[in-house]
Amino acid sequence: MKASQCPDESTRGSLVVLAASSMARALADSHEQFLAENPCVNNVTYSFGSSATLATQIVNGSPADVFISASEKTMTTVKDADKSLSVYNFAKNVGEIMVNTDSKYDGLITDITSLTDAVNPGIKVGLCVATAPCGALADSILEKAGISRQAIADTESPSVEDLVSKIEMGELDAGIVFHSDCVSAKNQKSSKCISIPSNMNASTSYYVAALNSRAASQQFAGFISSPSFIGTLQSRFGFLAP
Question: Up-side HSE of residue 181: CA atoms within 13 Å toward CB?
Fold first, then answer.
């Protein structure tokens, strides 16, 4: 059916998208919609991870058509290497504290200082590595609280997806994640989230870039930056307006 809908068979093909792990659920949800709206695209293959790691892969020549980053810094790395053709800012995220509900510290964690051993001796807390956008965000929050990364981090995860998994599985008592992760996990009984006041919080911006001149690459970047997709990100997945 799609073959007859594609106006130019010479443009038919698939896409490879490298995307920040915090975008995984939203992209999975929109996958079929994008294919339906762009019949010349056979399929989209996604590779998720830390934006910093993905940016390095692109700069080093990893084949990809589109890059979705969770920070301006990681997108700039790709832009400065002349790897991107078009860049759009489409969303923003803020930090939140995720807590394992089976933790003995559940109920004792109320703010950032609650994550320290000084307040809750023996608590196990995770952060994303400092090079990942979720780690850089956590560092900005900790700086406002006057707390060092070393004072609370018992482990460092390569991506927010990995950090969320460790909290939900009970390997960690708590960690600083994205607000969108908390919205996505709101039906999970294994975790809950504690909001961080706006004056103590920080934000990170999301960008999408087409990495080549293929029509499909431009179409995907346009889809991600469209009012429809941005609206869905905000209403269903907890992202904020760019």
Answer: 28
